[in-house]
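Slide 14.
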Amino acid sequence: MTKAQEFLWYIPNDVKSGHRGDTTTLDHNSLEALTSHALALERFGWKGALIGTGWGRPDTFSVATALAARTKTFEPLIAIRPGYWRPANLASAAATLDHLSGGRVRINIVSGQDDLAAYGDEEGDQTQRYARTKEFMQLVRKLWTEEGVSFRGQYFSVSNSTVEPRFQPSKGRAHPQLYFGGASEAAEHVAATEADVQLFWGEPLAEIAQRIERLNSLGDQLGRELAPLEFGLRITTLVRDTTEQAWADAEAKVAAMAKKNGAGWHDHQNFVAVGQRRLLELAERGEVLDDNLYTAPGKFGGGGAGTTWLVGSAADVAGSLKKYRDLGITKFILSDTPYLAEIERQGLQLLPLLRDEQPRSQALPAPH
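Slide 15: predicted structure.
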């Protein structure tokens, strides 16, 4: 059965204002400001948003809980780190919020480097890090789907553990989906057997196709027991009324980044993981790849989803995203700055094209 497309946005959840060129305001991370983003996402047709994580940011689960309480349909994709959380604590917190929000929780497992010592955690090498992540995901899923769980692993243990409240499966959803990223061999082995959704950053179509084929093959080789792995794309989408205006604005943004030496964009630069290195190397192949995948941001500090951008009119960007969809991508996490204004612009102009509808030419009336 073909999975339906889903379109999410991004909430950076950063104490510093001006993330990736966002509007600089003193209250950017207040509850009111964050709620305005979540409400705008509901209003303009988005499913929800990925909420960023990392030591030195506000606690992601707390932010997600506050936003879920102030919205009706907004679905937080809550980024969490094994080690910051223990499996039983995360399983219980997610079950509770999912119950209180009417089934709106999604979890993004992040295994990238962090300031582990700041919260009393430690890790070994990459092999150990992903072995721990795999065990974490296995135990969380067992706690969500079984009762009286006893588990003794290399990294985590529980005895006769039952998470309450229990999930009530509906619409084919037995528990919150576990999203996962990572491009190393160790990461792909975890994704192939334990993830519900593998997230990619904005690589060219050919590379994404190869990775999907490899992950599906790995799942078969390793005896995946879960439902078939789904795939998602996390990418910056710079959309303007015309192709020409989009490229002019994209080049101006990159020029501003270069002038400031990438200040405000360096959130993936302290440790260059395999996936990030692949993105940065794309600029060596050309400034524009495929139809409109812009690699120049990576030269000046663009990190993660800010490293490559899809640039163009709504029709241009929709056409490119549909090509990713044709490869098997069903989950799209898009963004551009200023975040709040682009929620509206892309909700009105881009989302309808992705759903094969007519774009809406003006903003919806404000809710009463």
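Speaker note: The CA atoms of residues 178 and 196 lie 5 Å apart.
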